[in-house]
Amino acid sequence: MARLIDELRKLPGVGTRSAQRLAFHVLRASAEDAEALASAIRELKQHLRLCSICNNITDVDPCTYCTSAVRNQRLVCVVEEPTNIAAIEKTRSYTGVYHVLHGTLSPIGGVGPEQLRLANLFTRLAEVDEVILATSPTTEGEATAGYIAHELHKSKPNLKVTRIATGVPAGSDIEYADEVTMSRALEGRREF
Ligand code: ZN
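Above: the input record for the complex with zinc ion. Below: its predicted structure, written as tokens.
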């Protein structure tokens, strides 16, 4: 029991109280439900990983976007989470590839640049012509875009760095943008 509580406490947003509650829930659950939870976790780790090029969740490394011959590998769209890719794919107008940060800078939340998955964006810059910063138009998203733009200009001065237009309502998450809004935000992107 103590071991399970310790493991659950490592999950984001789970404190000691929640971890205890979850552990007791598992204790009372049927053997089948408990096994289903354990096997879902095990299989996730066995079959899925992060793409070594773009950090997207994938079952093959590199992912299908990064190896696609029909996609423009020189155009990279930077997003906060893997789920943001779906919102952009729905527009069917984006033909480039991606880079997933797995978070945003948050001084209050204690998230600094070293907590984001940024290093592999810089190692691929030689093969990139444009980077689109598609982080959310929230305070954290804007701060993240500003920081990355600054670092990109430092490492490759002739790189085109753009920011999606504010077609996505300010303060909202791009995950909830509809296809038309997202299309317009991409088309109306401006040089940073
Ligand atoms: Zn990839």
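Notes for the reader.
The domain at 73-164 is CATH 3.40.1360.10 (Dna Topoisomerase Vi A Subunit; Chain: A, domain 2).
Helices lie at 2-8, 16-28, 31-47, 82-89, 119-123, 139-155, 179-187.
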